[in-house]
Amino acid sequence: IYNSWIKKQIQTPLQQILELLNKNLSILKENKIKIEHQIKNTKTQSLQWPLIASKTRTHMRITDLEKHINSINIYINKLK
Question: Cβ distance 31 to 58 under 8 Å?
Fold first, then answer.
C-alpha cells in the first residue's frame, strides 16, 4: 500500500509537469513558424539577423524541452 501511495505522489506531479512542458513546446513550435514567416517576408538583410537569432534560440529551447519531456516520460513509465 505504501509503495503505491508513493508512486501516486510522484507520478501525479510528473504528469502535470509533462502537460505544461508539452504546452510550452507547442507554443514554441508555433512561434518558430511565425518567425520563419517573418524572415521570408522581410526583405532587408539587416532586419533578418535578429529574427534568425531568435529562431535559433527558439530551436534550442525546443530541443531542450524535448529532452526533458523524454526524460519525464521515462520516469513515468518506470513508475507504472
Answer: yes
For 9-30, the three-class secondary structure string (H helix, E strand, C coil) is HHHHHHHHHHHHHHHHHHHHHH
Q: How far apart are CA 19 and CA 34, in angstroms?
A: 23
Alpha-carbon distance of 72 to 65, in angstroms, equals 11
Report residue 13 as a C-alpha cell: 506531479
User: Could you tell me the sign of the dihedral formed by the alpha carbons of 42, 44, 47, 49, in that order?
Assistant: positive
C-alpha torsion angle, residues 43, 44, 49, 50 (rounded to 10): -90
In tens, the pLDDT along 21-66 reads: 999 999 999 999 999 999 999 989 899 999 999 999 999 999 999 9
